[in-house]
Amino acid sequence: MSFIIKTETQSIQASVIFIEVSVILIYARLRHSFFLI
């Protein structure tokens, strides 16, 4: 039971990291295009 909970929290952490990375990439891309204008 605890093993299932542990893997679930690991997958949640992985998805949170993935969301953070994608937000940073989108923000960097927006800043880049803003500077080009």
Short description:
The chain has one helix at 2-36.
Any overview of this molecule?
By secondary structure, the chain is mainly alpha-helical. The chain has one domain. Helix content is 95%, strand content 0%. It is built from 1 helix and no strands. The longest helix has 35 residues. The radius of gyration is 16 Å and the shape is rod-shaped. The termini are far apart. The model has no long low-confidence stretch (mean pLDDT 87).
Write the layout of secondary structure elements.
Elements: H1 2-36
Proportion of beta-strand residues: under 5%
Q: Could you tell me the mean pLDDT? A: 87
Structural class: mainly alpha
Distance between the termini: 55 Å
Task: Name the features.
single chain, 37 residues
